[in-house]
Predict the 3D structure of the following.
Amino acid sequence: MEYRKLGRTGENVSIIGMGTEHIWHEPEAAVDAVMNEAIDLGVNFFDVFMPSPGIRSAIGTAIKGKRHKIMLQAHIGCAANQTEEYYRTRDLKICEEYVNDFLKRMNTDYTDVLMLHFIDEMDDYDLVFRPGGMLDLALRMKKEGKARYIGMSSHRVPTSVKAVDTGVVDVLMFPVNPAFDMLLGDTVIDALWQEDAYKNLEENKNMPSSSRRELYRACEKNGVAVVAMKPYAAGWLFNPNNPSGMALTPHQCLHYTLSQPGISTVVPGCKTVDHVRQAVGYLTASQAQKDFSETVGRTKWNFKGTCMYCNHCLPCPSGIDIAAVTRLADSGSLGVTDSLKESYNGLSSKGSDCCQCSTCMERCPFEVNVIANMARAAALYEK
Ligand code: SF4
Ligand code: SF4
């Protein structure tokens, strides 16, 4: 397993985490098998939003004796009705009850991340972040030792940007995949399934959506960890008949997601032990199996000129990790922070090592001006 920092928290998290939604209605033995296979393979980050008591207890039983090995991400703002159906709530009494119920069923005193759940609309954001709202409740629970870090989950850019700017939110859970990255920031994710979506996307020449990419960069710059959900776009990207002409394998999807700025871990949903092994198999997949660049570059969407951080342009005779240098140049364009500088200084070859041979540009499927990007990075970090 590979581990990355969970942003400014400094915690080490496995780059392959796990979303547990898909084991929600599985028998207890299956829940136990999936959870333990993941833990045994080094997965240490688990998102558990489901409010139903059955699945919470099953996961709590599965992780008994292993709590110290893993990080749990609980959600505040979701609850279950009498027939155990999920609903979103901002009722503070119910919110607190459900977090306490989570801790009890997980046999733990604390959750590592407490996520303000599913905040897509601006009026909902205002409700949650107002004095005395759900954020204040989460902060009180953090003070009481019931949560170590505060997070927020969202599918939309405007509320996410606001949350990142607060300085209070350490972790952002956000959908990251090449299909959603084509959407305009303020577009709901269901847009991909609407009849005229592809037409609208094709007409927009400013692809990929700059606002989503700006969000990832802002997260990296501010040390806000991105927990990437929906790396497969709910399976849409596996369908060869989807209207983009872009069909990817799970490993290509995971590689795209993990290559974007600010991403600490990706949490694919796993329903079976085989799903867990397939996701973790990313770590042993060959570069050719992970390479998404040619498939993405062939789509009808317009990616030209935009670095997708795929490293299809390697090898570089100067030993430059072109994707890493470009990613840091992009994130640094919002302002160079100490942690960005530290990452840049840690690279064995820098932008200034570029001898302008241009072989990378012949290989790049996205017609990126790599030489200019290397110079941009050198100007930002090597002054
Ligand atoms: S320059 Fe092109 S090939 Fe290289 S990482 Fe960026 S998009 Fe990929
Ligand atoms: S142009 Fe620069 S970055 Fe590209 S391969 Fe040559 S030395 Fe490496």
Notes: The first strand starts at residue 3 and ends at 5.
